[in-house]
Amino acid sequence: MSDNSPCPQCNFQFGYSTGGELMMCPECGYEWNPSESEQETPDEVIKDANGTVLSDGDSVIVLKNLPVKGVPQTIKAGTKVKNIRLTDGDHNIDCKIDGFGSMSLKSEFVKKV
After folding, report:
1. Could you give the residue ranges of the DSSP H alpha helices within 1-113?
2. Model pLDDT for residues 43-62, shown as the tens digit of each residue
3. Edge-to-edge strand order for the sheet containing 31-32?
4. How far apart are CA 94 and CA 99, in angstroms?
5. CA dihedral (59, 106, 74, 72) positive or negative
6. For residues 86-111, average pLDDT
7. Same domain, 64 and 24
8. What is the pTM of this model?
9. Does some domain include residue 91?
10. Considering only CA atoms, which of 69, 89, 87, 68 is closest in space to residue 79?
């Protein structure tokens, strides 16, 4: 274990040992046990506009009209999208929409069915 571990909460790089098993961040004051944080590697949870957790294969409904670059029409609010795939990045939903083809959507503009 190194003396300077990055903070798991704010990613400040100069966390330090408090003399026992715990580490502390001088930036945000967060305390953690480095042996526990190495064991826990939770994946980022992707939520819809209402805070419901999404998973691969879910069906969602688009909440607002979404313009599509290079296409004169928009994806209308209320469009149902089936069998989504979750990805990393800003547009964290990959899907196929009838009439548009493969798309990437932001989870903040959809609601789980």
Report:
1. 34-39
2. 578 999 999 999 999 999 99
3. 16-17, 23-24, 31-32
4. 15
5. negative
6. 93
7. no
8. 0.61
9. yes
10. 68
